[in-house]
Design goal:
heterodimer, A: 880 residues, alpha/beta, Rossmann fold, 4 domains, five-stranded mixed beta sheet, 26 helices, 35% helix, 10% strand, B: 268 residues, mainly beta, Methylamine Dehydrogenase, Chain H, Thrombin, subunit H, 2 domains, four-stranded antiparallel beta sheet, 0% helix, 49% strand, globular, GTP-binding (chain A), GproteinA_insert (chain A)
């Protein structure tokens, strides 16, 4: 009957039947009222929730009453037939001294809410509750952990209770339900003990031992195969057979953990097996996958030693201290959570109340000062203000050191010892004969050869630690972006040459093709111009002819016309090239057609007519400035065996023919730093930077793909200073000022939500060209720069003086301010501006270096509080 | 930005901001770092490669869409372009092409969606002009997908709507949009997929929603974004397994999630 009812009832599921013992439940339920609305209030009976009745605390399964100092009423074993809700929780705990108590006040809020607050007795052990098996009728998230007291860690436990509950309930179904509760009043008394833990970010632990599962049985499929290899979860210790391990552990993002254990700290007893997997796993996956999983397991933050559980000289460690401790040259072996004492001067290291177990690096800024009774010695002889133990006393005696009269020794890391208060080194302890033997006999530590005796090395070590951290953290990404022709590619290539990231053969080949193709394009532009010149010339001649009619003029006309005329062969080539340009097939044909055309180009170049056009190249606005550089060497470049030099690459337009994203990794050169950076860090060269150069067109319309660069650290926005009087002509003939285009792109990027928190460095490029240009074309040609009216110096000859900046410099400052104001109006932050000339290596280095400084400054500001802290703690150790 | 399996499952093509489409052969041995060597690069696009798809039942042909306003049919064995759709020809897209989808029942036909807010239908034999241009969207067409029967295709756009077009008549058959307030920002549709039967349309949005639309009734059957354990960030892509039993969504919250009827599994 009960089963039938159960299947009718909503929320009940069949699976519950197989793990609950008996269903002698008296169900009394009514059908929900679905008629018309009632005009009067229905008298309601507030249901009595069984769990609201303050029940007695149930003792832990393994805990005996004598273990508790708390007033605990003996267990009431609740059965599911106590009430219709039949709710009870199961808490499995590994350690008997961990207790959980149910908070009655909290659970009164709603039916089906179980309030848990985790407390613990042992101040070292941070206990957290584990799985809860929930057997409520309506099991829709009816279990929730409540943070009762100031314990913030319990929030970490809000994991998928349902999942784990199901799993656990499947695994253990024949156990009697055991719930441990504790009285409310006791938890408050515990708070003082545990309060000092709260300052640390806690990694939750998941103590869970399923010890009733028989040996040799897989925890998931429950099949027995005693000799089959199994993989063990490093958190809960569950063992899985070959077939189940993937299902139970999933993709193993934190190493070998059950899916439900992910995010939990590992079982300390299994720390030794970190990174060492069974043969089974190796068979199951390929080597690479196993390697990857093991590296996850070792490096994953959750799997690291919880620093707050290691107490050195009575002080729980912080993360930084643990890093210092573990990364010193001579770290403590097999570090496990626990209490240790550490002699900072000599490097002695041992468990609290025990003799030294090891000699580690001295002078580490770890923990508090050592206490006298740290090693629980009773010999009245002190070394570095610690009373030494009997074995140590024997060691001193055997080493021939006079220990009469309970002397106080001062031993440094290199073993030189002296009496306290005496500035006289009595000898070196570790150089004593036979001491190594004695130490071995007394099982005392002997310093390893790698011990660093002096404190300077320790500083270096610390730097190394920092450096390691930085390396992990710092792969700074610089995004270089700008409009067409703004010189981003030049800066990119310049940086590449500057920071010695060579171009590969493929890239060189690509560049070569690109340069050659561009050359043909330049020639094409010149030839196009020739047609125009020829026509103009003819018109002019005709006009002259009309003005001055005479028989001699006809021959003159022919001569004049000849200036721009070619031989028939070249004429043919010219028309063919122009045809190609018009149809837009230049790029499709040119890499292949270079070979047969190179002699023609040479001939063309030598042709008088072509040279005549070339002389008038300044009239051609479509011809880029760099064209001169290549056209001068047209014959050389068009050859098949042409190899582009670094200079050629630098001057070439673009980086790749495809115009896609280009990126390079580099690190700044040390020498270049020293010039304008006083505090050069040692790790400067090791921090790597990535310069990503993106063409504006590859960001798509409306900057659609800008989101892809969300992880960049700084945006270098490049604007060509000469843009102000240049125009971009669209296909439909609409002319737009290039500076306005740059401004628009800048606005778009700056206001993009992806980059709202990013730093921006504006690189105003092509300063050299501005200097040439500004004399001829005033800056006010651009609408945006209308109000540029610099005070013109009365002594223009002195313009080169420092006190009297040139017009170009003023223009640069003016443009910079314009952009800064624009930036501030959008973001309210400061825009960094740098001046550059793409073709000059120094200026590019300076601009990128400035970008680096911004990042560094930002990083330092972020870590300022940490630095302040660490400098304090480091101070006493270095002053010793 | 995009990747695709070949029909035989032996190779993978991917393209992105480097303006190239790279082909990897899954059977080739890995190098020391465990990376697959590149088996071929298809270069020729002058803009980013936004989308690629293998021609059904042919491992040697691939269609890519690019930010240079063109689509290209490639011959992988030679690495050369077989035909270029759009670009210099007037009937092509006038802005970045964002997506292509090849007709499953007639692999000569494919559609492309573009930033010019149109979708175009192409015949691979006629590269010179689009067979048909589908107007209607008011924003970039981010994604196009052929309906399983091959006579219709769906689109997803920045205007927040999905539409279903008929390729034979050129008519708009259905529009899938949620009402939004005036000042509310409309979430863009980033990716769509049809169920095997075509009855359901899955659409991922930039606000993290993932609607399951009833294709015929244009009603929301389910919103995966409101479910427990849904994505935190925008849904950037989604796809159905070949047998139609599971849906995978990718999101900018760095998770991939696999959804199946009656439950879901999370993959990290």
């Amino acid at each position: 009957m009960a089963r039938v009812l159960m299947s009718i009832l909503p929320g009940s599921s069949v699976k519950r039947e197989d793990h609950d013992d008996d269903y002698s439940v008296d169900y009394s339920f009514a059908i929900e009222y679905s008629g018309p609305a009632l005009s009067h209030d229905i008298p309601q009976v507030v249901p009595v929730d069984v769990r609201l009745i303050p029940t007695a605390a149930v003792a832990a399964r393994a805990a005996t009453v004598s273990n508790l100092s708390l007033p605990v009423i003996q267990p009431i074993v609740k059965k599911s037939d106590l009430g219709k809700s039949g709710n009870h929780g199961r808490v499995y705990s590994r350690k008997p001294e961990d207790f959980y108590h149910r908070d009655g006040a909290q659970s009164s809020s709603s039916s089906g809410t179980l309030g848990f607050s985790d407390g613990h007795c042992d101040s070292n052990q941070l206990s957290c509750s584990s799985d809860i098996e929930d057997l409520d009728d309506d099991n829709k998230a009816c279990v929730s952990y409540n943070e009762n007291n100031s314990n913030s860690k319990s929030s970490n436990l809000n994991q998928d209770v349902q999942d784990s509950a199901d799993e656990v309930s499947n695994q253990i179904n024949n156990r009697t339900s055991v719930v441990t509760f504790r009285d409310i009043s006791d938890s408050t008394s515990e708070e003082s003990e545990e309060s000092h833990h709260d300052e640390h970010a806690m990694i939750p632990e998941k103590p869970m031992v399923l010890d009733d599962v028989k040996k040799g049985v897989c925890y998931k499929c429950r099949k027995r195969n005693r000799f089959g290899e199994k993989e063990v979860c490093i958190v809960c210790g569950a063992k899985y057979c070959r077939k189940c391990v993937i299902r139970a552990m999933g993709a193993m993002p934190e190493g070998r953990k059950c899916i439900t254990c992910i995010g939990f700290g590992i079982d300390e007893s299994r720390r030794g097996s970190l990174g060492k997997c069974s043969r089974m796993l190796k068979k199951l996956f390929t080597d690479d996958v196993v390697k990857q999983i093991m590296s996850f397991e070792v490096s994953c933050g959750v799997n690291q030693l919880p620093p707050h559980r290691i107490c050195v000289n009575g002080k729980p460690l912080s993360i930084e201290e643990l890093v210092v401790l573990q990364s010193c040259s001579n770290p403590p072996k097999k570090l496990k959570p626990g209490k240790y004492w550490y002699d900072k001067v000599a490097g002695f290291w041992g468990k609290d109340g025990e003799k030294p177990s090891q000699i580690i690096s001295a002078q580490l800024a770890v923990g508090n000062q050592i206490r006298q009774e740290a090693s629980n010695g009773n010999t009245n002889v002190m070394i570095n203000s610690r009373v030494i133990t009997t074995p140590e006393f024997w060691m001193l005696k055997l080493a021939g050191i006079d220990c009469e009269g309970s002397p106080h020794f001062w031993v440094t890391a290199d073993g030189s010892y002296q009496l306290e208060g005496m500035n006289y080194v009595m000898g070196k302890l570790w150089e004593k004969k036979l001491l190594r033997l004695v130490c071995a006999a007394l099982s005392l530590p002997f310093p390893s050869d790698a011990t660093n005796p002096d404190g300077e090395d320790v500083d270096k070590e610390r730097d190394k630690v920092n450096l390691k951290n930085l390396e992990q953290k710092m792969m700074n990404k610089l995004l270089l972006i700008g409009c067409d022709q703004s010189g981003t590619s030049t800066i990119y290539k310049q940086a590449r040459i500057l920071y010695k990231v060579p171009f590969s053969e493929d890239e060189k080949q690509d560049l070569k093709i690109m340069i050659q193709r561009n050359l043909y394009r330049y020639i094409g532009i010149l030839l196009e111009a020739r047609e125009r010149f020829k026509e103009d010339h003819a018109i002019e001649l005709r006009r002259r002819y009309i003005n001055e009619p005479g028989p001699s003029d006809i021959s003159n006309l022919v001569d004049e016309n000849n200036i721009y005329s070619f031989s028939p062969r070249l004429e043919h080539f010219s028309s063919w090239l122009l045809q190609l340009m018009i149809s837009g097939n230049l790029e499709a044909i040119f890499p292949a057609a270079t070979r047969e055309n190179s002699p023609l180009v040479e001939e063309l170049w030598k042709d008088k007519g072509f040279q005549a056009i070339y002389k008038r190249r300044n009239e051609l606005h479509t011809l880029p400035k760099v064209a001169n550089y290549f056209l001068d060497r047209a014959a050389e470049i068009s050859r098949v065996d042409y190899e582009p030099s670094e200079m050629d690459i630098l001057y070439a337009e673009g980086i790749r023919s495809s115009n896609g994203v280009a990126s390079m990794e580099f690190s700044f050169l040390k020498s270049s730093q020293a010039e304008y950076m006083e505090s050069v860090d040692q790790n400067d060269t090791s921090v790597s930077y990535q310069l990503i150069r993106v063409h504006a067109s590859s960001l798509g319309e409306n900057l659609k793909w800008l989101e892809m660069f969300e992880d960049v650290d700084i945006v270098l926005f490049c604007v060509s200073l000469t843009d102000y009087d240049e125009y971009y002509e669209e296909i439909n003939g609409k002319r737009t000022n290039k500076m306005s285009l740059s401004k628009k792109l800048f606005e778009g990027i700056v206001s993009h939500p992806t980059f709202s928190e990013k730093h921006f460095l504006l690189i105003l490029n092509k300063f050299d060209l501005l200097e040439e240009k500004i004399e001829q074309a005033p800056l006010t040609q651009c609408d945006w720069f209308q109000d540029f009216n610099p005070v013109i110096s009365r002594y223009p000859n002195n313009a080169s003086n420092n006190s009297n900046p040139t017009l170009a410099q003023r223009a640069f400052h003016y443009v910079a301010v314009k952009f800064k104001r624009l930036f501030e109006s959008i973001t309210g932050r400061k825009l960094f501006v740098s001046r550059a000339t793409g073709l000059e290596a120094d200026s590019v280095d300076k601009a990128l270096g400035y970008g680096k400084e911004i990042l560094k400054w930002d990083y330092e500001r972020n870590t300022f509080s940490m630095n302040e802290w660490s400098s304090e703690s480091i101070e006493p150790s270095t002053s010793v | 930005m995009t990747c695709a399996f070949s029909p035989s499952g032996q190779s993978v093509a991917c393209g992105g901001l480097d303006s190239m489409c790279s082909i990897f052969n899954l059977n080739s041995p890995t190098d020391r770092d465990g990376n697959l060597p590149l088996s071929r690069t298809l270069s020729g696009h002058k803009g980013y490669v936004s989308s690629c798809q293998y021609v059904p039942d042919e491992d040697t042909h691939l269609i890519t869409a690019s930010g240079d306003q063109t689509c290209v049919l490639w011959d992988i064995t030679t690495g050369l372009r077989t035909s270029v759709f759009g670009g210099e020809f007037q009937s092509g897209h006038t802005a970045d092409v964002l997506s292509v989808s090849i007709n499953g029942s007639n692999s000569r036909m494919f559609v492309s969606g573009s930033c010019d807010s149109t979708a175009r239908l192409w015949d691979t034999r006629v590269a010179s002009r689009a067979v048909r241009t589908f107007h209607g969207h008011e924003g970039d067409v981010n994604t196009v997908k052929f309906f399983p029967d091959g006579n219709r295709f769906g689109t997803g756009s920045d205007d927040g709507t999905c539409r279903l077009f008929d390729i034979r008549t050129g008519h708009l058959l259905q529009e899938y949009s949620q009402p939004h307030g005036d000042n509310e920002e409309v979430p863009h549709v980033t990716s769509i997929a049809f169920s095997i039967s075509g009855r359901l349309l899955f659409a991922g949005y930039t606000n993290g929603d993932c609607y399951v639309w009833d294709t015929l009734l244009a009603q929301v059957v389910l919103n995966l974004g409101t479910l427990q354990n849904s994505h935190n960030g925008r849904i950037s892509c989604l796809g159905l397994s070949a047998d139609g039993s599971a849906l995978c969504t990718g999101s900018s919250d760095t998770n991939l999630k696999i959804w199946a009827f009656g439950g879901h599994r999370r993959v990290i």
